[in-house]
Amino acid sequence: MLKTHKKRDVTLLSEEDTLCCCEYVDQHGQKNHVMACCCDCEELDQVCDRWLKCEALPPNSLNRVFETLADRCRVPWISGAQKLDLTVLPPLLLLPVSLHIAALHFLLALIILTTLPICILWYYYVTHRQKGHTLFFLSLVLFSLGYMYYLFVTEVVPRGDVHLMQLAAVTTGLILTLLALARTKRDPGYLRTIMHANVHSTVRYYQKQSERVGNTAPNGIHHNFQLFNESLTPQNNGNNDKKSWCPACKMSRPPRAGHCRICASCVQRLDHHCVWINNCVGQANHCAFLLTLFFFLMTSVYGIILTLGSICRGQSVLFALFYCPRVYDQYSSALCFTCTWYSTIVTAGVLHLFVIQLINVSYNVTEREARIALRQKTARKYLWGLIIDTGLYNLGFSHNWREFLTMSVSAFPSKLSLEDVV
Fold first, then answer.
1. Among the options 249, 260, 263, 274, which is catalytic?
2. For residues 419 and 414, what is the distance between their CA atoms, to the nearest angstrom?
C-alpha cells in the first residue's frame, strides 16, 4: 500500500444539502460515496506500513482503523447511505454454526450450550459496564426468533405431529411478539427541552466519531448544541433541588425521570436500558415491553412442547427434555433437540426478567430506583433480594397496577431508520 499524506478539507454541510442513496457524510464531516470505501485510508496505510517495517504502532491506532472501517461500511438508503453496524453480523454466523455443531454429539451439545450463554453474558456485562452502544443483542434476539421458527416449520411440522391450528398458534405468537417488540422500540418517553424562550442560539458542527457525545445524524456525526441564557442554570431557575437537574441535557427533570448515558437523553420514568432491544424502557413503552416478554414466553413454551412431543413421542415434556432415547440417531432430530434446549435456556432467562418486572410493577418501583435505593441502603429486601421495596411510591397492589396500566404515553414523532428495520 502506498502511504498517503493528503490532508482532507473538512466540508461542513448545511441542512439544505441533499444526498443520493449512495452518498453519506463521513466522520470528518465530508461528503463521501460508498464506492470509495477502500480509497484514501490514511489510518490503515500507516498501520500496515509500520507493521511491515516491524515498528511499534501508535497508541489507539487500531481503534482509529476500526472506526474508519465501521464508518465506511454503509448500505444505500433513501435519504443517504446508512451505516451498517458490524455487531449485527456475528449472531448470523455464531448461532447456526454453534447449533449445528452441537447436534453432532450430546457431549458437543453439552459443551456448546454451556459456553455459549456464558460468552454472551460476559459480552453483555462488558458492554453494560462500558456503557457501549451495540446491536449484537438485538440482532441475536431477532435472528434467534427467525431461525427457531424456520427450523420448526422445516423440521418439526413435516413430521406430521403438528396440526395446522397449532402451527397457526405459533405463527400468531411470533407475529404478536414482533409487533410488541416494534412498539417497544419506539420512543420510550424522551424528555424534550420545552424552555425555548431561554434558548440563545443553536450551533451545528461535525465531529469525529470517537469524540461524539449526543445525537447521531442519519448521515454523518453532527451535534446540535443549544446555547442557553444564564436563567437555565440550577442556581437561577428557582429550583433548589440539584438532583432533578441534568447537566448533560441542561434541563430540570420531573420525578422518576432519569438520564441514560447510552442514549444520551433523559427518559420519563426510566426503568433501565435494555441491550436486548437496544432501547430504553420508560414510561411510554414499559407496557409494550412486558407484552413482548409475555408473548415470547407463551410462544416459546408452546413451541418447545410441540417440538418435544414430535421428536420424543410418548413421553412427558419435562422427562423428554432430559432424556430422549435415540434422539441422536438422526441428525434432524438431534438438531431439533439441541434447538429445544437452546430455546429452554433463553426462555428461562426471559422468565426471570419477566418475574422481576412483575414484582417491580406490583411494588411501584423501577429497576433504576431499586439500584439507587440499594446503593444508598434505603430499600427493604425480601425473598433474598428478589423483592425490593423503596417505600416511595408503593400505594398497594391494585393501585400500583392501575397506575402502571394508565400511564400517560407521550406521542412523539418517530423517524424511520435502518436500525429500526434491523
1. 274
2. 12
Between the CA of residue 334 and those of 72, 253, 303, 306, 329, what are the distances in Å?
Answer: 41, 54, 16, 15, 8
Sequence-separated (6 or more) residues with CB below 8 Å from residue 213: 223, 264
Residues in contact with 382: Cβ distance below 8 Å, sequence separation at least 6, in sequence order: 388, 389
The reported pTM is 0.75
Residue 274 known to be catalytic: yes
Residue 18 sits at φ, ψ, to 5 deg, of: -105, 150
Q: What is the pLDDT of residues 100-144, one digit of tens each?
A: 999 999 999 999 999 999 999 888 888 877 777 788 999 999 999
| Spatial distance between the Cα atoms of 132 and 243, rounded to a whole number of angstroms | 25
State the Cα–Cα distance between residues 335 and 234, nearest whole angstrom.
60
CB-CB contact of 44 with 58 (8 Å): no
Q: What are 60-111's pLDDT values in tens digits?
A: 666 666 677 666 677 777 767 777 777 888 888 889 999 999 999 999 999 9
